[in-house]
Each structure stands twice: as structure tokens, then as C-alpha cells.
Backbone:
């Protein structure tokens, strides 16, 4: 574990218009091996600095590398996943907790979050949104329409909902295993990422998965998403030449389960890509002891990670959603 005295600083870029308006924060590099968001942010920064892009109202904050230690080490995490347990901590014990204590006050000062990521497997870019409006105990929310509009206008071919529900269900499953830890508020809090924190403070947020880590198109996806968010909020001028045809509405999926890798010898039956369709009963993977894992129903593989460590998420499963954005 890194000493508390080791300092890898956070770089923050802020722009304030003289005209009041929304306050948007954009994060890149929450995971150190995900570089497309950083590239997209740097491109927008260059245009703002060069005068080819103007902030007409509101405030914009951009953090190109939200986890500098992980980026320095060129891996997903510095000491742990920054996108978990994303809450202020009075007694931080690791680097990510200290960075979270810097980022949370930043998010507090904003209305909207765009968090830019990429993923391990092959697959197309997609946006992730939070719950529908509700007053429940897990993630009460009242800004689902605004969040959905933001995701819709980013223009990815797919939008995915349901993260925190799946995390809670996964905890409940693990609690039922021999020696499983009970599900309590602390355990649920570990599932909080940047967007969950943003919603808890009265704002809303969209995560954009820009494609596979090394996809050369991913930085362009990130760049265009930042501009789309700014235009949606009326913070920059509209496009001078809108597209002749509107893009097709995105497919909307809902996460329904997550499967952990339990042993290094667990393996997929083939190389899966995010959003590969599977039929009910179709084989997905094989456990170390020979147990076959099959699709619980017709659906889609999401975030398959053949390199997952034992005890971490191996793949998610999604189905078509009845939600309308």
C-alpha cells in the first residue's frame, strides 16, 4: 500500500462564464488504463484555450486523469477501484480514498456529471444511466428524465440501466454463500461510484463507455460526448450544420445479474464481446470444477472480462428494457 505521504497530484481545469447556467463536470481516467476520456478532455481544453470553442453560460470543470496513481502505474487501479466506495472518508487509508475526498467536493459544486470510461472486451460504445424516479431506500432519485435525455443525445447505439440494483443483488447472493458477509449499509456503499454519489447530492450523471480500451475511435467518442453534453445543457453554441438524418433510437437494456470469477481456471466457452446476444440455456463459461454456466434467459453479455481476478466481476447479463427515455 502506498504511504500516505506519497503525493501524486490531481489536475483540475475550470471555466466559468459570466452568464449563469448549468454546472457540468467531466471526468476521465477514473481507471488508469482507460485513456480515451483523457484524450477527449484534452481536445476540448485545446479548443477552449484556442478560442475555437466558447463557453456561453454556466460552469465547466474537467479532470483529465481522475486517478493519477493508477495512470502513473498504467493499470486500472492505484490501490483499489476508485469507482467503488465513492464517498467522503474522515479517515482515508488508501490513495483512492484521498482522491475521493478531493473529487467529492468538486462534484458537490456541480449539477451534472459526465464520466468517461472504456472496457476490456470488444464492443460498441454505450451510455449507462441510473434508476427511474423513485423514493425507495436503495437509490432515491427524481431526475431520471434529464439523465435519460443526456444519454439519448450523446448518441450511442445502446443505453444500459440497473447498476446499483445488480450490485445489491450480488451482495445478497454472496451473503448466502458459506462464510458470506451480511448485507449492510457499509457493504452497499462500496457499490457507489461517481454517478451514485452525484445523484445522492441532488445532481445527475451519465457514464459513457467509449469502447474497447485500445479502440482508436474511442477518443473521438469521448470528445463528441463532451460537446454533446455541453450542447444539451445550452452551454455552447448548437452545431452549425445539424445532421441530415437523426440517428436511430438506442437499444435500451437493463442489467439483471453479475457473475463473479471464482477461480483462475474459470474460462469462457468462447471469446465474448459486450452486447453479444445469447439464447436461454446457451453455454457462457465453465467453472474450474467443470460446472457449466448457461444463460438464464434470452439476453446479452455485458463487460465480459477473461482477465478478471478470482472474486471479481467476470461478466454481466442484460435483457431488453421497457423504459422509454
Residues:
Amino acid at each position: 500500500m502506498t504511504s500516505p505521504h506519497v503525493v501524486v497530484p490531481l489536475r483540475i481545469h475550470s471555466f466559468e462564464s459570466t452568464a449563469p447556467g448549468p454546472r457540468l463536470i467531466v471526468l476521465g481516467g477514473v481507471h488508469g488504463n482507460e485513456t480515451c476520456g483523457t484524450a477527449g478532455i484534452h481536445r476540448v481544453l485545446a479548443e477552449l484555450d484556442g478560442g475555437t470553442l466558447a463557453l456561453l453560460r454556466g460552469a465547466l470543470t474537467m479532470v483529465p486523469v481522475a486517478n493519477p496513481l493508477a495512470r502513473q502505474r498504467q493499470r486500472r487501479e492505484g490501490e483499489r477501484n476508485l469507482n467503488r466506495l465513492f464517498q467522503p472518508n474522515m479517515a482515508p487509508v488508501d490513495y483512492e480514498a484521498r482522491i475521493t475526498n478531493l473529487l467529492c467536493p468538486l462534484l458537490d459544486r456541480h449539477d451534472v456529471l459526465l464520466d468517461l470510461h472504456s472496457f476490456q472486451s470488444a464492443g460498441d460504445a454505450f451510455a449507462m444511466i441510473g434508476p427511474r424516479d423513485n423514493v425507495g431506500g436503495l437509490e432515491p432519485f427524481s431526475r431520471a428524465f434529464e439523465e435519460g435525455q443526456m444519454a439519448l443525445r450523446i448518441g450511442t447505439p445502446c443505453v444500459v440501466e440497473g447498476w446499483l440494483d445488480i450490485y445489491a443483488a450480488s451482495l445478497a447472493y454472496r451473503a448466502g454463500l458459506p462464510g458470506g458477509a451480511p448485507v449492510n449499509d457499509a457493504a452497499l456503499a462500496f457499490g457507489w461510484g461517481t454517478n451514485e454519489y452525484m445523484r445522492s447530492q441532488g445532481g445527475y450523471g451519465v457514464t459513457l463507455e467509449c469502447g474497447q480500451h485500445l479502440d482508436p475511435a474511442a477518443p473521438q467518442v469521448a470528445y463528441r460526448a463532451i460537446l454533446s453534453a455541453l450542447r444539451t445543457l445550452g452551454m455552447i453554441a448548437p452545431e452549425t450544420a445539424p445532421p441530415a438524418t437523426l440517428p436511430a433510437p438506442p437499444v435500451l437494456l437493463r442489467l439483471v445479474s453479475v457473475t463473479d470469477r471464482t477461480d483462475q481456471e474459470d474460462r469462457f466457452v468462447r471469446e465474448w464481446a459486450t452486447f453479444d446476444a445469447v439464447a436461454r440455456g446457451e453455454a457462457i463459461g465453465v467453472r474450474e470444477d467443470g460446472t457449466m454456466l448457461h444463460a438464464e434467459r434470452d439476453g446479452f453479455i455485458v463487460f465480459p472480462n477473461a482477465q478478471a481476478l478470482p472474486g471479481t466481476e467476470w461478466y454481466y447479463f442484460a435483457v431488453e428494457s421497457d423504459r422509454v427515455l
Summary: The chain has eight helices and 14 strands.
